[in-house]
Every structure is written in structure tokens, then in C-alpha cells.
Amino acid sequence: MLKAVRVRAFVEADRAAVLALWEACGLTRPWNPPEGDLDRALAGPSSTILVAEDSANVVGSVMVGDDGHRGWVYYLSAQPERRHAGIGRTLMTAAEDWLRARGVRKLELMARDTNTAVLGFYEQLGYVREPVAVCSRWLTATDPKAGYQPEVKHD
Ligand SMILES: CC(C)(COP(=O)(O)OP(=O)(O)OC[C@H]1O[C@@H](n2cnc3c(N)ncnc32)[C@H](O)[C@@H]1OP(=O)(O)O)[C@@H](O)C(=O)NCCC(=O)NCCS
After folding, report:
1. 12 alpha carbon to ligand 1 midpoint, in Å?
2. Of all atoms in ligand 1, which is nearest to the CA of residue 87?
3. Which residue minimizes the CA distance to atom 27 of ligand 1?
4. Ligand 1 centroid vs 127 CA: distance in angstroms?
5. 38-82: per-residue pLDDT in tens?
6. What spacing in Å lies between the alpha carbon of 149 and ligand 1's midpoint?
7. How many Å is the maximal CA-CA distance in the chain?
8. Which of 18, 49, 98, 135 has the fewest CB atoms nearer than 10 Å to its CB?
9. What CATH number should be reported for the domain holding residue 98?
């Protein structure tokens, strides 16, 4: 039987559960300290973390932000043992509502090219693959990925 979940804003008491969830969902990378990402998303009004909880536990989360033009989501995650029960869809709907309330007209997201499984999920929700290339450049003094083996997928 599917347990009902509700979506609410992150509170500090969720920190350990959310970080563990991101780890369990394979979303963390060593050059991207997740705790720093979480703190930055919570630091200002243009981004936030939403969590899905059942009666007692955090079972999903999503980071959502407004960059002044488009809306973006990161770290979308549903507890591995609770997949295909609507948690991902519920969180994406909440992220869309959060952005719509701010006047954002389009949501964009990136999926790692190794994460082909997730593309079917987004397609199911009405997302389309765009004919764009994503370019990036670190703004740090040194490359945070330096020292990692080339066979480690970079993103
Ligand atoms: C992506 C993720 C959040 C989806 O969560 P979920 O709770 O299992 O998804 P839902 O149950 O809400 O699925 C919504 C719809 O997508 C479909 N769907 C879910 N996963 C799918 C997949 N891998 N391929 C195709 N369709 C999929 C479901 O069947 C459902 O369709 P329906 O509503 O018609 O039944 C979850 O798989 C996850 O945490 N993955 C690991 C982390 C990740 O890759 N995050 C995204 C980074 S870009």
C-alpha cells in the first residue's frame, strides 16, 4: 500500500536525513561537498530545499532555485526502497509550484549522461530534451576535480 507523503520546506532537523538520502541516491560527488551545496541553497530567498515526508521520515527531497531567468532543480531524490510510488512526481510538482509562484516560466534541469534511467522519469512528467550543450568553467583558483582518476565520470 502506498503511504501518503507531504512536501514541506526543509528544517534544520532534516539535515542528516537529507544528506544521507542524497548519498543513498548516488547524487554526491567528492568535488561537490553536499553540505556546502545545501547551505548555499538555504542561504538566500531565491533557492530552497523541499522535503517529502511520510508520517515519520524524510523520503525524498529536491533543491529548487530561481536564477533570475529560469528555474532549476538539483538533488531530486526518492528513497531507494520507495521508488515508483509518486514521490519524485510529487516533489517535481512542488518545485514547479514554488517557481511558478515567483513568476518563473520555465524549469530546466541537468541529468548526468550516465544517468540514463532518469530520463524516462522526466519524460513521463512532460520534460523534453533540449538541443543545447552545457558548458562550464570552475571559478575557483584550482580545479576541484584535479587528482581524481580520469575514469571517474566528471560532471
Ligand atoms: C528520479 C526519482 C526521484 C524518481 O522518483 P520516483 O518516486 O520513483 O518517481 P515517481 O514514482 O514519482 O514516478 C513518476 C512517473 O515516472 C515513472 N518513472 C519513474 N522512474 C522511471 C524510470 N527510471 N524510467 C521511466 N519512468 C520512470 C513512473 O512510472 C511514474 O509514472 P506514472 O505516474 O505514470 O506511474 C528516483 O528514481 C531517484 O531518486 N533516482 C536517483 C536520483 C536521481 O537520479 N535524481 C535525478 C537526478 S537528475
Report:
1. 26
2. 7
3. 121
4. 12
5. 999 999 999 999 999 999 899 999 999 999 999 999 999 999 999
6. 30
7. 51
8. 135
9. 3.40.630.30
- CA terminus-to-terminus distance, the chain: 37
Q: Give the total number of structural domains in the chain.
A: 1
Residue 131 lies in a domain: no
In a domain, 132, yes or no: no
Which helix H or strand E contains 109, and what residues bound it?
strand 107-109
Which range of residues forms the domain containing residue 67?
Answer: 6-124
Burial 104-123 (b: 16+ CB within 10 A, else e): beebebebeeeeeeeeebbe
Q: pLDDT tens digits for 76-127? A: 999 999 999 999 999 999 999 999 999 999 999 999 988 999 999 999 999 9
Residue nearest to atom 45 of ligand 1 (CA): 76
Assess if residue 1 is contained within a domain.
Answer: no
The answer to whether residue 146 is domain-embedded is no
Q: Find the 121 Cα to ligand 1 centroid distance in Å.
A: 4
Pocket, ligand 1, Cβ cutoff 6 A:
25, 27, 76-78, 83-89, 111, 115, 117-118, 120-121, 124
